[in-house]
Each structure stands twice: as C-alpha cells, then as structure tokens.
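Researcher: Please predict.
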Amino acid sequence: YKDQWRKKKLSRYGVDGILDPVMNSISRVILPLILALGLAASAAGAAESQGTFEVRIKDHREAIGDFSQLKLTVGELLISPKPGLKFWQSDWKGLAAAPEAIDLTKYIGKNSVRIFRGSLNTGAFDAIHLKLKEVSGLLKKAQRSTKIKNIVGPIKLPFEIRADIETMIVLDLVVLDMSDHPPRGYELGLNGYELYINGKLVDKVPRGP
C-alpha cells in the first residue's frame, strides 16, 4: 500500500515537485555564503590593487652654475596609461603635484626634490609630462634676473604600478646657455630620467654611470 501511495505521489507531483523544497532550503543557506565569500575576495583584491608612485626632479650639471636662484613652479604632472587592450583609456591622467616654488640650484647631481607621492591603481604606463607653470632665474653676475625659456615636454617612459611595490621616477632637468645662438638665451629642458623599483635603479636615460 505504501509503495502504491509513493508512486501516486511521484506521478502527481513529479520528482521536481519533491526536490524543489529541498533545493530551495539549500539555496537559502549556500547562496548567502557564496556571496559573502565573493565580497570578501573582492575587497581583498581591491586592497591589493594599488602601488606607491613617487616623482622627483633634479638638475643635470650644465649652466645651472650661472644662477644664484632658479625657481620653478609645477603646473601639472601627467602620466599616460599604456593603451594595450584598454585603448579607450589612452588619455593623460593628472596627478596633484606639489604647488610650492622649487629652487633648482639646491638640487644638483644626486640631490633631488619630491613633487609627487601617492597611491595609484595598478597598471602599465607609457609616458610622463611635467608641465611647468613658471620659471624664473637670478644670475650670479650682477644679481640680475633673466628670462629662461621652458622647453620641457612629454617624454616616452614605460613603467608599471604594481601592487604593494614602490615605483619612483627622477626627472633630470637641464639648464642650457644658448646665447651663442642669438636670439636664444637660457633654456630649461629635460635631460633624461631614472626609474627605481623599491629603491633599486632599473632604467636610466641617458645611459651611463
């Protein structure tokens, strides 16, 4: 009699009709658990998706010795994401650089000054652009001011921001005396750069000691 009743129940409701309540109960327990684990993994991934980025500047020894002061103010610091598969993100990314005036005569050779330090999302980058808002110089001779033409522009500089890794770029500026090519005078340009990963020099332009 019991077997006949079970067959009638299966024929009336079907196997799915019996299993549905069981599956619903399991779903109510498992789905929130999966969701919680997914959110935890996502949060952990987000916490590890940034690295430290620092930019410094210094002067390459050329005509800087003619000046008792050479002050510059950074207008913008821009970096360009490497297009790759994300070609739609190939525009420049602005960083909040230090706004105060910098006397470049104090940062010659191995001495440098920081203009940016912060956390950035991980990614590959292809170029950097230091935009100067103001450049002024005071010559040692006669202590008179002189015009300095700013020719600092964007440069190709491949680098990566990696999770929990410190990336540092030192931009090597150079002051040139072009007065032997009138009407040109003093010009401020970019001589090269140094790229450091966790304090270790990994790339340098121009090459050399």
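Model: The first strand starts at residue 50 and ends at 60.
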